[in-house]
Amino acid sequence: MAPTLSTFQFADPAEVTEFVVNKGNGVKGLSETGIKALPDQYIQPFEERLINMFVNETDEAIPIIDMSNPDEDKVAEAICDAAERWGFFQVINHGVPLEVLDNVKAATHRLFNLPVEEKSKFTKENSLSRNVRFGTSFSPRAEKALEWKDYLSLFFVSEDEAEQYWPDVCKNEALDYMNKSKTMVRKLLKYLGKNLNVKELDETKELLFMGSIRINLNYYPICPNPDLTVGVGRHSDVSSLTILLQDHIGGLHVRSLMSGNWVHVPPVPGSFVINIGDAMQILSNGRYKSVEHRVLANGSNNRISVPIFVNPKPESVIGPLPEVVANGEEPVYRDVVYSDYVRYFFKKAHDGKKTVDFAKI
Question: Mapping DSSP to helix (H, G, I), strand (E, B) and coil, where does residue 21 land?
Fold first, then answer.
């Protein structure tokens, strides 16, 4: 018999983990039991709860850049400036059709509304492809405190592989989103590259900057006691670039490089949030900044987001670009194999900016 919502209780933390992680209910399933108190394993350490109290204390804002401005040099300059000073910016009039964005958001809701038995076909244990993974939190085995988020992660190998293994409810929409955003991604990389003396985005450079792509469909359900936990903990991305589509709810915060304050990234209809990842910070020898960000849990709304992580090829060796150090600039980072770097990131809990130290000289 299904538990009645009002009386649903877990006897101990192990039961919660069993229900959420092992049985594949995720925090969405947990939220829908109607629990009134946040289970202990989601309670974040004191310093994280403290940040929750002070996230909205600033009027700083990340730049919003209109990519349709006919003065292309101005657009490029604004993007490079934002990449250096903020590591984050929003783009509007980016050329990706708005219906593509609406379709992938609708598909994300469809996916998470599937029955548990359907979603759990894609858990680590059950998925027929290691490139398709339904999960919860970040690294439940490495974390002291869990994060209030479920996700489906799709690593793109080929159209055929996606056709065969990605979930039917979202595969066409996710592929369309990925393919239709590529022109914009190339444009961003061209602008950022030119500013680093990279004359053109040729095939070699394209493989280095965008040789692999991962799409995540994220779901942040309504949370009891949202001030005690996080949707996503403090981290910077390991990508070259991250292209984020967020819905209208809000909750993403970025750490200002100027002040150290946590700055909200307000949802702008039809926009993308773009951020520099660690790989780009390393390739640019620290000129472009990969910045810490986090997501609040929400007590009254379900939120979704759909990031595309644009990454080097796993076997790429990343280090400061020859074009950057050609003028005698001292390299700050050593060369690392990108897949080793990523493995190091996923082995530990979210810990702010500590991953990039792995590549420091």
Answer: helix
